[in-house]
Structures are given as structure tokens and as C-alpha cells.
């Protein structure tokens, strides 16, 4: 099936976007517990936060409940164990023994979106700290009025460097890295804030989920929230990408307060000139009154709307910025249309979620799958039907966070010509470095087959192991390193023969 799509794309029968969507879907469907990559964690407590940097897609940042934060190199393994298991150890560690380390659990750890020179940690010790990756020193810190449950930075921001923080206090506070001070606070929640998410389509829109069960939308350029999601307001399924009713006002609605009422055109009468000033004045007053009354920050009915029957423990937007996925302590997942603010009524299958702490959700770039930590496993749900696609099991304790990254994965299809027979190896998704090593190993395999015809399968396995152990690292040394490795291999082969 996959080869047919590849050939169809080569012949021009399959469009590029459809081929990309098929490749992404196949990649997501082939996810499984890796048996060739292992991370040796230095944490002695539960891992509460994970994020791969947004610039290179190479460095993994983790924060744990023992107050430590670590950075791993996802591309280059620290060492290789027997059986070709790539073991990744931390290249940076900040723990309680550090002079500026956190005293209590780290609840969130996020990369600075522009580069990997800075990262931010939030902790239950009521501090949010900005770290310099090169010197492992604190650049600045912010004191909060309570336990900090979450912190977030906009991945698309170009005009500000704000850290949104949610704590046991009822206010969302924005910390500015440029000035080292609080810019302003966002008031509206009646309980602590457990989850925050920046919009993927506007750098000014922030979404917050509180322990009061409300999800609020904020435009940080204005006072007060401009929308509160209500689970009783719903629409059936996903909407079409292009709406006929989309106007300039609807586009403004994505970054500002929504007005569900629009002035209708009035019929002209004979005395329209005489009454036009009065009519205009009345229309302005009525329209202004309705707009003010419909503002969630002023309307008591909409201000008390809830999205979950309990605390909102997790928020995640799709990459296109059109939908928002939320989880609550009521063990429910809800998918929201961001433009209309309606619940899409996707019925996600039964699950059991943690209730006492924030959860980190993940969504594929398609978006087609949603990954949700469900007790000791991670469940992948179809985002549009709510059915369980697959359950990933491997942890022995509760899972608090998950992160999905598609960067630097290569689809590799290899055809071997062995003893006059074509052997096809199924498509694998590897990192760039692993792809280079695999291609080099394939070239060496072909070279060895050209030198000698294999007599014993055991000898071939020995050479294959040596190829990976000897040639993976000299690959970066250029041609002399490769020739030197080939010389060693030839000597070993002659001894084995």
C-alpha cells in the first residue's frame, strides 16, 4: 500500500499534500516502544514536564519532582550497549545541590522559543527561574505568591518575550524576560490556574484553565478575558476549513472579544435623512450595550460558565491553531473550536486521568491523534472520532507528561541485492544521524558481499555487529576514517575466514 503511494507520487498521480498526510499518518501509526534508544534519567522523582527545543529539535528538556532539570541530546548517543542500544545520558543537570537550584518539585520546564541558550523552570517553591544553558546559571528569577503549577512561552512570538505563569493564586501573571519584571496580571479565575497554552495563530492570545473548571481566553493587550468556554454551547463535529460567513470581523474575533450580534441593514424610508442622526445614535447605544453585556468579563452568566466538572488539568492546541484539546479532573477530554468557542461533542472513549496535578497532552501535526497520559499508560485517541487508536504501556508508575516531535525523522526505504535476489526492508523512521549510520552500514554490507560470498551466517552477523560498532563514529571523520575502518574490517574478515 505504501509503495503504491510512493510510486503514485513519483508518477505525479498523488498530490504533494496528500502524500505528506499519508506519510505522517503512517509514521504515527508505526509508533511503538523503542528497543534501540534509551534515556538514562538522573531524576529521582516523577518527571512532570518534557519538551524538545523548537529550533533544532535536538535537545530534550525535562523537569522532575525532586527539583532537578536535565537536558539530553536526542541525536547523539552517549554510549552504545550490547545489542546496539543507544544510551543517552544527560549533558546538563541542575538539581537541589546547585547553588541556585529549586528547593521543591519542578512543575514545568520550557525552552526559550528562539534558541537553546535559555530555558525556564517553574517550581512549587514559588519561583520561576530563567537559566543560561551554557553557564548553568540563573539569569533572572520571579517570585510568585503561591505554588507555580505551570509556565508557558509563545512559540510564535516576535514582539514580546513573556512567560505566562499559573499558580495557586487566582491570577495569571506575565513575566518579561527583557525587563526582568512583571508586566501585568490577568484576573478572572476564582481558583488556582493549573494549565496555560498560547495560541498557535496569534502571539497575543493566551488560554488558561483553572481549578474552577473554566477555560478563559485572554488578549494580553486588553484588560479582562474576551471569552469563556461553555460546555453547553456545542457544534457537531469539525467545521469546514473555509466558512462562507467568514468576514473581516470574524478574523478580528480570533484576537479579540467576540460579538455574536451584528447590526442588520435597515430599510430606507422617506424621512431617512431627518431621522438618520437619531437612528444612528440609538443604534450605537443599543449595539454598545449589547456588546458590553455579552463581554464575558462583565456578564455574570457567561463569567460563571465551566468547561469541565472539576479542575482543567491540561490544554493543547492543534498546530493550525483551529482547535483546543482540554482535559479535566472529571476524567474527560473535550475538543473545542477556537473560532466559535463551541464544544465539538467528540465523544472520547472512557479513560482514567489523574486529578491532583497538571497533565501534559500532545497532538500530532496533522492533527489526527491526541496522546493523553492515562494513569500508567499513554493512550492515543483519534482526534475526530474519539476512538482509542493505541495504548502505549511500558511505565511502572503514573505517567504525568508526554511530548510528540516529528522533527528530523527520515523515511528510509532500502533495497538489498543479495545473491541475485532483491530483498526489500520495510520503511523505518530514523533520525538524521541514525539514517547516515544506516546508509553507511548498508554500503559496507554491499562492499563485503562483493569481496566474499558468505559461507556461514554466523560470520555475517559478526561482521554486521563490527560494522555498526566501528563505522558509526568514524563516519564523521571523512574518507580517511572510512578507509581505515574498512582496512580493519578486512583484516578481521580474513581472520574469521
How would you characterize the overall build of this protein?
InterPro entries: Rad28/ERCC8/Ckn1/ATCSA-1, WD40/YVTN_repeat-like_dom_sf, WD40_PAC1, WD40_repeat_CS, WD40_repeat_dom_sf, WD40_rpt. Keywords: DNA damage, DNA repair, Repeat, WD repeat. This is DNA excision repair protein ERCC-8. Residues 237-278 are annotated as: Disordered. It is a single chain. This protein has 497 residues and is of the alpha+beta class. The protein folds into 3 domains: 1-26, no CATH class; 27-239 and 300-393, Methylamine Dehydrogenase, Chain H (7 Propeller), CATH 2.130.10.10; 413-496, no CATH class. Helix content is 22%, strand content 33%. It is built from 8 helices and 28 strands. Strands 1, 2, 3, 4, 5 and 6 form a 6-stranded mixed β-sheet that branches. α7 (457-471) packs antiparallel against α8 (479-496). The protein is globular, with a radius of gyration of 28 Å.
Present the secondary structure layout.
Layout: H1 2-10, H2 16-29, E1 37-40, E2 47-52, E3 59-64, E4 69-73, E5 79-81, E6 85-94, E7 106-111, E8 118-123, E9 127-132, E10 137-143, E11 148-153, E12 162-167, E13 171-176, E14 181-187, E15 193-198, E16 205-210, E17 215-219, E18 225-228, H3 248-253, H4 272-293, H5 300-303, E19 312-317, E20 323-328, E21 333-337, E22 342-343, E23 362-363, E24 369-374, E25 377-382, E26 388-393, E27 409-418, E28 421-431, H6 432-451, H7 457-471, H8 479-496
Parallel strand pairs: 1-6
Antiparallel strand pairs: 2-3, 3-4, 4-6, 5-6, 7-8, 8-9, 9-10, 11-12, 12-13, 13-14, 15-16, 16-17, 17-18, 19-20, 20-21, 21-22, 23-24, 24-25, 25-26, 27-28
Helix pairs in contact: 6-7, 7-8
